[in-house]
Design goal:
Length: about 180
């Protein structure tokens, strides 16, 4: 699996920075699509008070800019037989093989997220498995990867929320309105 270059996200958006301002109407569309990815252009148009054509063009531009990376169904892992959520902290050993670790983690289907972190460890992995025996097997596979040093695991008991929509950034000066731009 090919991952984005380090320090960059898919679509060319730098981590923590948007290349250009986002129009308030685009923020409205993003807010709706984050929670209702199956919304039709007609429904979006009605809700943001634009024509279907204008909404279609805006959504395509948001996709082209990499602000919308895709659409997916939110599934219930426990209902699919994966009730155990664990977070595995991985310390990378010094050496040339560490740079390949995210791609190696991506090859493990139980690893559903990988974050580079600022901590004693280098990576934080989110793992979904059926039971503790499966978790132990996955941790052993992670530890066996070349470049992995120490690991530490934390098992989640209850997930109160996850995959929340990304809110618009707070505008300068404390206003509740999204930042205004000149683009349409």
């Amino acid at each position: 699996m090919r991952l984005p270059a380090r320090g960059r996200r898919a679509g060319g958006i730098l981590r923590g920075h948007v290349k250009a301002s986002i129009h308030p109407k685009d923020w409205e569309l993003l807010a709706i699509l984050q929670s209702e990815g199956k919304a039709t252009y007609a429904d979006l148009a009605r809700r943001v008070n634009l024509s279907q054509t204008a909404v279609h063009e805006r959504v395509k531009k948001l996709e082209a800019r990499g602000l919308i990376r895709g659409y997916c169904a939110m599934v219930d892992p426990a209902a699919l037989g994966l009730p155990v959520t664990a977070f595995v902290f991985v310390e990378q050993r010094p050496g040339p093989n560490g740079n390949a670790l995210p791609e190696r983690f991506a090859e493990l289907p139980e690893v559903v997220a990988c974050h580079s972190i600022a901590a004693d460890e280098t990576f934080l992995l989110k793992v979904r498995v059926a039971d503790n025996g499966e978790l132990e097997r996955v941790i052993s596979e992670i530890r066996a990867l070349d470049g992995v040093g120490r690991t530490r695991c934390v098992v989640g008991l209850t997930t109160w929320f996850e995959a929340r929509p990304v809110p618009p950034p707070a505008p300068p000066g404390g206003s509740d309105e999204p930042p205004q731009t000149v683009d349409g």
